[in-house]
Each structure stands twice: as structure tokens, then as C-alpha cells.
Amino acid sequence: MAGTLFWNDEPALADHEAHAARIGWLGHQDAVKPALTPAEQAPLAALALMGLETFAHLPARFLSAGQKRRLAIARMAAAQKPLWLLDEPTTGLDSASIQRFLGLCEAQQQRGGLIIASTHTPLELPDAEVLKL
Predict the structure, then answer these.
(1) Does residue 27 contact residue 62 with C-beta atoms inside 8 Å?
(2) Contact 75, 44 (CB under 8 A)
(3) Measured between alpha carbons, how far is 29 from 6 in angstroms, rounded to an integer?
(4) Where in the chain are the domains?
């Protein structure tokens, strides 16, 4: 398979650094640093959006799997990148946290951002296009 990926009518990969700078990445693993507190890894406002303000000054090693996922989401969302690439973003999240995450996704869409997500759980977002593989 071959082709060219475009960003604003320009080949996206003509400048790898510029393309990398537009991407907010949320991988399957959370990449949370266990010795640091959530406040050292994401802005307090972003932590509050994911309901983590109570744990802001606790070392991340004490967080549950769902709390670590919420921290990873808060950190990614706080970066304000125009393109989010998400791998199973709702893994480990309870229903309230999924709703918080969807709120962040809607805010990303409203500011003109794009979201590409691989997931087994449908993301109920306005104007979402689904490709089933």
C-alpha cells in the first residue's frame, strides 16, 4: 500500500519534526512516571478535568490503573495538539471517567482538532466516522 499523507494541503512527512509536533499520543501503556506526582506530570487544570485533583501530590506509583490512565489522558489533552492518536483510550476507565474523556474529545473537536482512535469500545462522539476492520 502506498500513498501520501497530507496536512493542510502539504505532505505531512516532508518535515518529520513539524508533523511529530502536531501529534498528541496516547498509547496502550500510560507512560506514567511512578516516582513523580500527577501534578509533576500534568497541569492541575487538566488533572481536575479528569477528576484527579485529590491525587495531585501523591506519587503516581500509588494510583490505580484507571487513575494512571486518567493521568495519561490529562497529560495528552493538556498538550493541546491538533491531532490525537489514541490506542484503546478507555481501557481501565469507569463509566464516569469515560464521560470525562468524551468531554475532552468533544472539546478537541470543537477547537478543530482531529482524533484517530483504535478501540473495541465505541466512542460516542458527534460526527465520528467509524471504520470497522
Answers:
(1) no
(2) no
(3) 28
(4) 13-118
Of 62, 74, 76, 68, nearest to 29 by C-alpha is 68
CATH architecture of the domain with range 13-118:
3-Layer(aba) Sandwich (3.40)
N- to C-terminal Cα separation, the chain:
16
Name the pairing type of β-strands 83-87 and 114-118.
parallel
Q: In what order do the strands lie in the sheet with 114-118?
A: 23-26, 83-87, 114-118
Residue-wise pLDDT tens digits, 82-115: 999 999 999 999 999 999 999 999 999 999 999 9
Distance (Å, whole) CA 133 – CA 19: 26
Angle at 24 between CA 34 and CA 111, to 5 degrees: 130
Q: Percentage of the chain with pLDDT > 90? A: 77
According to DSSP, the residues that pair with 117 across neighbouring strands are 86
Return the pLDDT at 1: 62
